[in-house]
Write a structure and sequence with these properties.
This protein is mostly helical. 66% of the residues lie in helices and 0% in strands. The radius of gyration is 16 Å and the shape is globular.
Amino acid sequence: MAQETRECHYAAADLVNRYIDVANENFCPRYVTRLLNTKPWWDTVDSFVSVAVSPLTRRYDHDDLIDQWSESENLWLIRAALGHQRGWKEHTDVGRVIGLCDRHWANPEFFVAKAIGWALRDLTAIDAGAVRRFLSLRTQRNAVAEREARRGLERVGGIALRGRGASTR
């Protein structure tokens, strides 16, 4: 996957999506890791997270791989780790996602902060209280992540971040 255009990545994501049912437990560590690291863009990384990382980490025990990505210095692997439970709905391990968000809360990289915010926003549909508690315990600001989380809380009719410019309903 050394092609330099996004279109090649889009095509690869489409192919992975089409044939994900035949991917074995080695596909994510062996191939998806490489796809996430080869000429990444935020949107192609998110595509691979949706079509490969999320379904394969749910199907196979890839906790060690997600931890490895999370502990790396690679912002795209961190972003993939933060989104690895995207779409799991009631099967989401809220504590695991919150823990990953906490681990990277102070990361100043925009694309990591945005991934934290999206993960928290998605969690609001599952456990808005956990997101509120998490945000209320933060002593350090992360405006990008907070803004995304607030959008999720507002969507479910919750109080987002009292005292930080959020509305209450």
